[in-house]
Specification:
Elements (H helix, E strand, L loop, with lengths): L6 H24 L16 H25 L10 H24 L13 H28 L5 H15 L1 H6 L4 H24 L4 H17 L9 H19 L22
Helix pairs in contact: 1-2, 2-4, 3-8, 3-9, 4-5, 4-8, 5-7, 7-8, 7-9
């Protein structure tokens, strides 16, 4: 696969999102339609990476390729042990908890954590679906293909840049300011680097990437009080050193080869 063959995926994902950006606000205004948890209707564009991935894969590999791609979604056995799945599930909740502590220590007026435990499985089910729809495109197609022509870190930054820009319209449609959007785009790019690291280091597991994506959203919407105290600048400042440490420990070339592994025994990045 070549980097050029990623372009159709990006173009399709962009074109498919346009109706959601344009008609989402109109439907909210004129038809009084709304999604729960303050999501704009344009958030339904999460289907776009999935649709683009299926089209590109079907064109290149036919039905066999599509079936192979879909089979990877729930294949948890690819991951090199349960620790990678556990890391994917706990990393972002821990980072947001740390950002909340940092804001408290800085004297920020914040609500006390009020997490509805009964809501966690509901949110998790919802975001496992949305994470699947996105990661089939962002991870299994875009990131893995770009790695054949550039380092894993460069691929993550490229996909993360597109991914964050692709979300700007919904961010603005929910009433967020430009500064908030800019910092959250930085968070999005950092999360793409961490997603690619988790996928590569776990043996090329799409399932691990989906779990990480889902728990990022669960943590964002539930902590500390339905996302009411989320500050993307603080989150970015927490995630940046963590991401830098990951890149140093696993290497920018593959994001999969442990720096202190014996020569020849470190895992390589997956083939796509």
């Amino acid at each position: 696969m070549t980097a050029q063959r990623v372009l159709p995926f990006f173009l399709l994902t962009l074109v498919f999102a346009l109706p959601f950006w344009v008609f989402g606000p109109a439907a909210e205004r004129w038809l009084d339609l709304a999604l729960p948890i303050r999501l704009p209707l344009s958030a339904l564009m999460i289907v776009c990476p999935f649709a683009a991935a299926l089209i590109v894969t079907a064109r290149e590999r036919g039905g066999t390729g599509v079936r192979a791609l879909l089979a990877r979604i729930g294949d948890w056995r690819v991951a090199r042990g349960p620790l990678w799945i556990a890391a994917a599930a706990t990393l972002m909740p821990a980072a947001l908890a740390l950002s909340w502590v940092a804001m408290v220590l800085a004297g920020r007026p914040l609500p006390e954590p009020a997490i509805d435990l009964a809501a966690i499985p509901v949110f998790l089910a919802l975001f496992l679906v949305s994470g699947t729809l996105e990661e089939v495109g962002w991870q299994a197609v875009a990131s893995e293909r770009l790695q054949t022509r550039m380092s894993a870190l460069a691929a993550a930054l490229a996909v993360g840049g597109f991914w964050s820009a692709w979300h700007i319209v919904p961010y603005l449609q929910t009433g967020n300011g430009v500064v908030w959007v800019a910092w959250h785009c930085a968070v999005t790019v950092l999360l793409r680097v961490l997603t690619l690291w988790l996928a590569n280091a776990s043996g090329g597991s799409l399932f691990v990437a989906i779990v990480f994506h889902a728990f990022c959203n669960v943590a964002y919407f539930l902590f500390p009080n339905y996302g009411s105290a989320y500050d993307p600048m603080t989150a970015a400042l927490v995630l940046a050193p963590l991401t830098a440490l990951v890149v140093w420990l696993w290497g920018p070339q593959t994001l999969a080869r442990w720096r202190f592994a014996r020569s020849g025994h470190g895992p390589g990045r997956p083939s796509s």
